[in-house]
Write a structure and sequence with these properties.
Elements (H helix, E strand, L loop, with lengths): L3 H8 L19 E3 L2 E12 H8 L4 E4 L5 E13 H16 L6 E2 L4 E4 L8 E17 L6 E12 L2 E9 L10 E3 L5 E2 L4 E2 L6 E8 L9 E18 L4 E2 L4 E4 L6 E8 L3 E8 L5 E12 L4 E3 L3 H5 L1 E2 L12 E7 L6 H5 L3 E12 L9 E4 L3 E11 L1 E14 L8 E12 L4 E9 L5 E4 L5 E4 L14 E10 H9 L2 E9 L6 E2 L5 E12 L2
């Protein structure tokens, strides 16, 4: 968590302010007496949402209906599209076609295309959005031959595809009559393929002028650049590998010491799916690593058994099904692993299609189908903090203020946040040596607002603080090139408190400084 924005309020190097006035500072006027000046520096009205939005670079700050703040860290675990799944089927078509340099040899008038030997699938229907079908053959018959090529499982506008050609008689010498459409292949766009008994057949008949069947020579067919738009059936039990990924939780980036305990942290597992087949997530790893480097695994029956995706039926093609699975302290160890100082979540989640291998379930995939798994880590600002110490460093250059003899800062605070804050500022010179600090002890600048037994704020706390800076401390400050800023945050007790959007801190800040004559 970046704390420089909070410190900037306290040491006047930036901040967010309102026009609210505090009575205690009304007597500080911009008047000179002797060599001293009293100047009102700022009246600041700060709500925690404004500060926290500056702290967090990767988190989303939300407010629930009760006004409670939540830090939400999101990560996308796994995304798969129908086009990616189709690549395996499409590659199989190409591999079968490339069985010889010329394509698939047609040795008999009826041959199967053995896609099922390559993939453990049972296809009931395929729709193609792209592809070419080409063929070539020769005739050694001394008579004219009529050739009809049939694709009985390939349907165009509801009718099986068929092609007819005639070859002249072979004289017995020279090149035999032949036909090839390689330069002008058949366009298979928008063709439906309906296998017969889970098989695709290619058939041909060749007859001479008397109607007698004959065989052709050097008959080859090819299916090239096949792309699917739809597939239906039992589409295989396959594992789709999700990458190892990490959600960084930067809440504790500046943590030094102490504890913060989150009450009721949650992880939400969000599923979106338009694949029409049973799919189950397989959690290979789901660990939370805390700021001290310890790794704790998420434990839950949902992790052990896997989470099934909701999916549309054959009558719901194009619909997206969604589901959310919530990991809480009631169904997991989430409170133990996320309640104190989480630094990152590491996960490795795969997806398994047709996990029960039930071939009676017939499903579908389209080229626009997708499934997506997201993880949302929710850290509500409800809990306790005990001497939670954070530090940050800022560069300074005070060369133009060398004539100051002393500086005193008066802070008048009114607080409805259930957090007290003690600060200390260390002065570091150009050699990186710590030369002095603001005060002998940490300075309490904000008292925590009182809370009831439920952790809800019941009132406000007021505190006026004067911080003198003179003599050696002042010179060390003027010579400093860096300020190391430390803040220690605490809640009123070990019991959980609730931080909500209406809570507010107001500071009136004035300075009294003396300049050498």
């Amino acid at each position: 968590m970046k704390i420089q924005y909070f410190f900037s309020l306290l040491i006047l190097i930036g901040g967010i302010w309102s026009c609210d006035q505090l009575d205690e500072l009304e007597d500080i006027q911009g008047v000179q007496y002797d060599a001293e000046y009293a100047v009102p520096l700022a009246n600041l009205g700060v709500s925690l949402d404004r500060i926290l939005q500056n702290f967090e670079e990767r988190a989303t700050l939300t407010v629930d209906p009760e006004g409670l703040f939540h830090f939400e860290y999101a990560g996308e675990v796994l995304t798969e599209t129908g086009s990616e799944v189709f690549e395996e089927i499409e590659q199989t078509f190409q591999e079968i076609t490339d069985i010889t340099p010329n394509g698939i040899p047609v040795l008999l008038p009826r041959i199967p295309i053995p896609y099922k030997d390559e993939l453990d699938i049972e296809v009931d229907l395929i729709r193609l959005k792209q592809g070419q079908f080409s063929y070539e053959f020769q005739s050694l018959n001394p008579d004219e031959v009529t050739v009809q090529i049939d694709l009985p499982q390939f349907f165009q506008d509801g009718s099986p595809m068929s092609f007819t050609h005639t070859l002249p008689a072979y004289s017995g010498s020279g090149n035999p009559p032949s036909f090839s459409n390689k330069n002008n292949p058949v366009d298979l766009s928008r063709i439906e393929v309906i296998p017969q008994n889970d098989t695709i057949y290619i058939e041909y008949t060749a007859t001479n002028s008397n109607g007698v069947p004959v065989l052709l020579n050097n008959f080859f067919i090819r299916f090239d650049n096949i792309k699917l738009s739809y597939a239906q059936g039992f589409l295989g039990t396959n594992v789709y590998d999700g990458p190892l990924d990490t959600i960084e939780i930067d809440f504790f980036d500046a943590w030094i010491a102490g504890d913060v305990y989150f009450e009721r942290p949650e992880i939400t597992y969000i599923l979106e799916n338009s694949f029409g087949i049973p799919t189950r997530s397989i959690v290979n790893r789901f660990d939370v690593v805390n700021i001290e480097g310890a790794s704790l695994a998420l434990e839950s029956p949902l992790v052990e058994s896997g989470i099934d995706f909701p999916y549309p039926t054959l009558e719901e093609v194009g619909q997206v099904k969604t589901a959310e699975y919530l990991f809480t302290k009631d169904n997991s160890n989430i409170e133990d692993i996320l309640s104190s100082k989480p630094d990152r979540v590491i996960y490795d989640i795969d997806a398994l299609t047709h996990p029960d291998e039930n071939r009676e379930i017939r499903g579908f995939i389209t080229d626009s189908s997708y499934y997506k798994v997201k993880v949302l880590v929710d850290l509500p600002l409800e809990g306790s903090a005990a001497d939670f110490e954070a530090r940050d460093t800022v560069e300074v250059n005070l060369d133009d203020f060398q004539d100051l003899d002393s500086v005193g800062v008066k802070i008048v605070a009114e607080n409805t946040l259930p957090l007290s804050v003690d600060i200390q500022i260390f002065f570091v010179d150009e050699n990186g040596v710590l030369t002095e600090m603001l005060s002998d002890n940490d300075i309490r600048v904000i008292e925590a607002a009182p809370v009831d037994e439920n952790g809800d704020v019941t009132g406000s706390s007021d505190l006026t603080t004067f911080i003198p800076i003179a003599d050696s401390r002042l010179q060390a400050l003027l010579d400093a090139k860096e300020l190391v800023l430390k803040a220690v945050f605490s809640t009123p007790s070990d019991s959980p408190v609730r931080i909500t959007e209406e809570q507010r801190l107001q500071l009136g800040i004035g300075a009294i400084f003396k300049i050498s004559n």
